[in-house]
């Protein structure tokens, strides 16, 4: 959503406005007790009964404070359910950016309140424009049908937006950064049928139409560029098959379980593609909560694209969801391999925290991968629960790599 921005301002005024006045009026008595405690402490007049301050507060008042906090939480969740979240950001290649985002999680069980089996579904939509006349619109849906009998995903993107382009390879330098202008629309969809226990199999379809791929005016093509960017415009169409094992306790914020996905896609002229290549991807995730609501999440992910692959479609590192300390597409080639480890823990009330690290690299082929070539990322994050029913968080991540750092805001977990 709000990815890879040098400076990001999250517009959260609604959190302050919703129920703020009532909270202020109802909390006067609690605040007066705090001030009285501080004055007694300064004057050395604390009694044995007030050495533990919160013991001196009536139980009914402590309960009342929690009730007030829960009212604010309910108001925030109500807002998130029915209204979009506005945001503003700035970066050198876009100037000021203004956007809105809307995320909803729900269960497709036709109102059956006794259904405790069906996994949650989600729809994410966002759009933004910049003062440099750039735009992006996105719709991402991930639907699990009643009793988990089928899974349908669909993503649509309409983009006229610049990317920071560093070239192709695993050793690109920050000084090689240039602005790549891309204009395109994309649609990807798959429909998987439950076949046995937690396993799903089904077809997939992808179509991308890139009608503009070029370096920004004034940017120079470097001798190290392995492709002619002007030759990467055109259509890409593919048919494929996906296999998935959904063994997580919650697809949107897992505490335990195993997830596996693999897919193979062929891009051919008969499917409307001007480029001929094959695409394989694999993704394994494991979650465990060994004690006190502290969750350990791990991921191993790879992609391989062999054939006539346009530069903007190569396998890559970086983004909101993996190797988060690296710019989206900073390193790109025909093969990528990465692994991530994240520790998730509660902090207080609706707040949680994370610490994470990851390593990844790209190469022309799997045989060219080497342990010494991994790029390292690490960071930490804050989580704010915005949907207690489906356990969905708003996440704030600060991620760092060897030569880049990013602040990320998005809905749901990275993986």
Record the SSE blueprint.
Elements: E1 2-5, E2 7-10, H1 13-17, H2 20-26, H3 28-43, H4 59-82, E3 85-91, E4 95-106, E5 121-130, E6 135-144, E7 150-165, E8 178-196, E9 199-215, E10 234-246, E11 257-267, E12 277-291, E13 294-307, E14 315-316, E15 332-333, E16 335-348, E17 351-363, E18 375-387, E19 392-401, E20 405-411
Antiparallel strand pairs: 1-20, 2-3, 3-4, 4-5, 5-6, 6-7, 7-8, 8-9, 9-10, 10-11, 11-12, 12-13, 13-16, 14-15, 16-17, 17-18, 18-19, 19-20
Structure overview:
By secondary structure, the chain is mainly beta. 13% of the residues lie in helices and 51% in strands. It contains four helices and 20 strands. A hairpin with a 4-residue loop joins strand 18 and strand 19 (392-401).
Descriptive keywords:
two-stranded antiparallel ribbon, 415 residues, mainly beta, disordered N terminus, 13% helix, 18-stranded antiparallel β-sheet
N to C succession of SSEs: EEHHHHEEEEEEEEEEEEEEEEEE
Cα shape: globular
Report the biggest beta sheet as strand number plus sense, adding barrel if it closes: 18 strands, antiparallel
> Low-confidence stretches at least 5 residues in length (pLDDT < 50)?
2-31, 46-57
State the gist of this model.
The protein is mainly beta. It contains 4 helices and 20 strands.
């Amino acid at each position: 959503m709000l990815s890879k921005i040098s400076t990001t301002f999250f517009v959260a005024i609604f959190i302050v406005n919703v129920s703020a006045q009532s909270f202020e009026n109802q909390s006067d008595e609690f605040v007066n007790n705090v001030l009285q405690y501080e004055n007694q402490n300064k004057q050395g007049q604390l009694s044995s009964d007030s050495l533990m301050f919160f013991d001196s507060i009536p139980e009914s008042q402590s309960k009342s404070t929690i009730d007030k906090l829960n009212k604010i939480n309910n108001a925030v969740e109500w807002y998130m359910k029915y209204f979009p979240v506005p945001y503003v950001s700035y970066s050198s290649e876009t100037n000021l950016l203004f956007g809105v985002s809307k995320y909803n999680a729900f269960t497709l069980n036709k109102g059956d309140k006794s259904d405790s089996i069906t996994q949650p579904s989600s729809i994410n939509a966002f759009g933004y424009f910049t003062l440099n006349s750039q735009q992006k619109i996105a719709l991402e849906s991930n639907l699990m049908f009643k009793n988990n009998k089928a899974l349908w995903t669909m993503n649509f993107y309409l983009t006229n937006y610049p990317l920071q382009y560093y070239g192709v390879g695993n050793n690109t330098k920050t000084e090689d950064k240039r602005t790549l202008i891309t204009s395109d629309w994309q649609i990807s969809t798959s429909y998987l049928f439950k076949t046995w226990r937690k396993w799903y199999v089904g077809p997939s379809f992808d179509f991308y139409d890139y009608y503009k791929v070029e370096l920004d005016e004034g940017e120079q093509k470097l001798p190290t560029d392995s492709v002619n960017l002007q030759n990467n415009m055109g259509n890409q169409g593919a048919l494929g098959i996906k296999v998935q094992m959904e063994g997580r306790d919650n697809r949107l914020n897992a505490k335990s379980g195993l997830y596996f996905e693999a897919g193979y896609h062929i891009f051919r002229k008969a499917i409307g593609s001007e480029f001929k290549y094959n695409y394989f991807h694999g993704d394994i995730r494991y979650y465990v909560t060994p004690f006190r609501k502290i969750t350990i999440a791990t991921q191993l992910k790879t992609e391989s694209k062999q054939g006539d692959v346009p530069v903007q479609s190569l396998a890559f590192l970086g983004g909101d969801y993996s190797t988060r300390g690296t710019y989206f597409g900073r390193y790109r080639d025909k093969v990528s391999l990465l692994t991530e480890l994240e520790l998730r823990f509660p902090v207080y009330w609706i707040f949680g925290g994370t610490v994470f690290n990851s390593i990844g690299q790209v190469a022309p082929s799997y045989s060219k991968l080497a342990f010494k070539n991994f790029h390292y990322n690490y960071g930490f994050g804050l989580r704010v629960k915005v949907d207690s029913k489906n356990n969905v968080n708003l996440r704030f991540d600060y991620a760092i790599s060897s030569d880049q750092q990013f602040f990320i805001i998005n809905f749901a977990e990275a993986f």
